[in-house]
Structures are given as C-alpha cells and as structure tokens.
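User: Please predict the structure of the protein below. I'd like the answer in structure-token form so I can feed it into my own downstream comparison script.

Assistant: Understood. Taking the following sequence of 520 residues as input:
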Amino acid sequence: MDIVGRMGPRTRGRKSLGWLTAVVIAAPCSGTASAADLPATPGSLPSVFASAQTGDTIVLGAGSYGVFRGGMKSGNVTLKPQSGAAVTMALDFAPASNITIEGVTLTEIEIGDARTKSITVRGADIPGQTTFRTGELQNSNILFDSNVHRDFNKCAGCGEGRIHLPENTNQPSGITIQNSKFLRGNSDGIQNGSNGTRIINNEFANIRQVDGADGVHADALQLYGSKNTLIQGNWFHDVGSAIMAPDGAEREIIEDNVIQSTNPFAIQLGSDNGSIVRHNTLPDGACEFNKRCGIITLGSKPGLPGGRETIITDNILGEIAFTGGSATTAEENFNLLAVVGGRGLKDVRGKPTYLGGTAPTSYAGFALASGSRGKGDASDGSDRGARIGAVAPAAGIPATPVAVGPPVIKVLTKLRSIGKTRKLRLLVKVSGAGTIRLESSIRPGRASDRARSRHSRAVITLRPRVLTFDIAGGRTIVFKLKRSAARALARSKNASLSVHSYAGDSRTQRLRTSRLTIRR
C-alpha cells in the first residue's frame, strides 16, 4: 500500500463558466454621497452595480442572476438578498475589486487577475467549485468566511478540490478561508498549491472516497506544491484522509487542529521542507488497515527529494512513522504518543483525558481535562495537543507582511561565556528596512567531560523576537538563558543553534532557516 497517497495531474487551464452576461466596469466615483440600499433584479443588476458607490448595498430580489462579473470599485460595495429571497449566481472575477457577497447560493466561482483585490464572500451556500487563479493573485486581500462548501463531485477537466488553488508565486496569495464547513462530496475539500494561504477555524466532515473516477482521491485537505500555508484551528472528523501532502510541502504551519480521520495516517508529509507541525490533537482509536489512528508520516516518493527539517512538537498523536524514501526532522519533542514512544527527550507515552469524555463530539470537547496527561507541560507551558480555549485561531485578513531580505545571523558568544553570564548574543543583519520575527532553539552537544554522565542534551527553546529595522544594517540581540540551560551549554563541547526567520511579525512567510554552531 502507498500510504503517502497518489495524485493525478493538476488542471491549470481556465475553464469557461458557460453563461453569458455583460462585463461591468465600475464608473468613477464623483463627490461624496451617503451609503444607500439599491434594489436590483436579475435584469437590472449590471446597471445598478455600475452606479453603486462606496458603502452602498445592492439588495437582490429573488432569482437566478447567471454569471456576475463585478468590476473595479474604489471602495467596498455589498451585494446581499432581500429578506427571505432565494438568490443564485456564479462569480467570475477577472479583475474585480472591493466587493462583498453575502448570503447567496453560488453555483460556481472563479477568481483571477493580479488586479483583483479586496473580495469577501460571507455566509454563502456553495455547492459548486471555487477556483482561485493563484498564479495571478498576489496579496489579494480575499476573505471567504462562514460559508458552506458542500456536495461537490469532481468533474472531468475540473481541478480536484471544491476550493482549488493550483499555482503559486513568490508572493503570498492574500487568501483567507475561515469559519466555514466542507461537507460530503467526491472531491478534495481544499486542494492547495498556493503560497501563504490561510486555512483557519474550519470544519471538514463526511469527505470520503466514493470512487476513483477522473482521478479523485477525496482528501479533506491536500497540499500539492504549496508553501507557507497556515492550517490552524480546524476540526476534521468523519473523513477518510485529512491532511495529505505526498508530493512536497514547504514551510507549512499546521497547528491547533483536531483530526479524527478513518485513515490512520492523519498527516502525511512527503518531501517536506521545513514545515512545523505543533499542538495538534490526533486522537487514538481503531482505524483502517488494522492500525491505530493518529499517525504522522514522513518520507518521500521515488525520484522526489527527501524530506528535511520538519519540526514536530507538542502534539497528541498515535505515533510518528518514517515511510519510504528519506526524511529528517529538525526537532521532535514534547509529544504525547499513544502507540509508539517518540524520540524526543520530553516525548511521553500515554493517553489524555478530554473534557468531552472518551468520544468528544465537538472541537471544544478535545480540550484537556484537569489532571490529564499532557496538561500544562508543553514546551511553551500550555497543554499538549490543540490549545483549545487558550490560543484563539487567527482571524480576519492578514496584513501584507513587511518583506525584507533573508537576514544574516552570526553568533557573538562562546559556550564558556554563556556558562558565566547566561547570555547568548547574536548579530542580525538585514539588507533593507522592514520587520522580521526570529524563532530560535539550541541543542547542546556532547559533554566536554566524559565523566558527566547526566549531561543534558535537551533542546533549549528561546523566546521569539520581533525586530524592526528602519534601514538596512545590523543589530545585536541578547537572549537571557535559564540557569539549567546555561549549565548544559557550559558543559558541552559545542552546540547547534537553529534560527527560523519570518517576514513581518507573523509565522507564515519564512525567509530562511539558519543553522549555526556555538563553540567553546
């Protein structure tokens, strides 16, 4: 069995939506007018939208509106049904800007063009496919919030996901998908090949393989050539395969998710490059293939690069399995494992106790009960597993990160000095103005004195630092270490320092991972 999955070729061509409608270009706004409610029908919508100004709401009468192509507006215009009206339309935005769609049924959506900005779709029923042309969209400020994506079956020539993000550029897409439901159907919930998309606080349910027609694999979330994705606070339940990335993922952040899949391999990372998997809950139980649930797999397919530098910390799971090919981890620690013990010094084996009992029926039910294994002893002092109620999932549309070049980092302190002062000094140089976030950890080397048999080599996690530079240049930063950490470093022959740097103060767009040696 190929436990890291398979994937057919991506569909990149632009698919016609099949309806005819007028192309609407917004007329320039003149003067300042107060916001107004503007009634519209299927026949009058093009002219009403053309006349709408910033702050106006177009109130839609019942009916089918065909394809709405929108247009470029200088400020936000909202479209929503009048009370009790059933409104159906398709969207084809290429380009469009400053449009909010609320509470309608959307049979199909396609959004592209680099000029498309500031689009919101909220509270919609979406039985059709949504395609983002993410090879064109950059920092697009698009928000999909509180929608229901349901019952979509992949068609011949379609992309695989009911939300399909097929390409990426060197800039973040600017797309956030949040607070939504992905239900039923014979297709992926989301198939993501984009850069920097945020998938937060969603529910994926009853997504299961029906058949293999047209290359369908029906994963709840498939990463396919994506990078810098934030997958946070989602609840996967009654799904076959949850998070699948068999063909490569890069610098993804997968955190605070609860994953109840019938496939035992809940998170599958093939040819991964530097992703972070932390604070997820993968409950134990009986799964398919006569295996226990909640396995994270690392590996690579034949002919593809090996996985490297994956970080797996603070999770509740069954086990971490290395499959075919090759894969290495940068850090594996503080996990609570139900089936096979981990390799980290702070990994423990056992099972947690949940507030929702032995079989919680909600995301909130997977919060740890008082006295549970893993309660309050994660690397950051919180609970292992999803930090339910302690760390709220990110919300809203992220600000475009302040981009600077990857920083150059130099160690200014030796181990002997750290033992005396308990301070680590780093020189951080950047090539331009901007803000960066640093996440750092140190692994002590072997003891300099062989007699010290109890020498600790546990990973030392440093507090994140956010640095703002007004101009290009360098800055010395100082980390104050705990006494026990300084003692472990003072006894070491050397130590390895890992510094992950991100654009802005977020944790989504990684600039560089620096691997440095601290010497005696």
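That's the full token string. The first strand starts at residue 37 and ends at 40.
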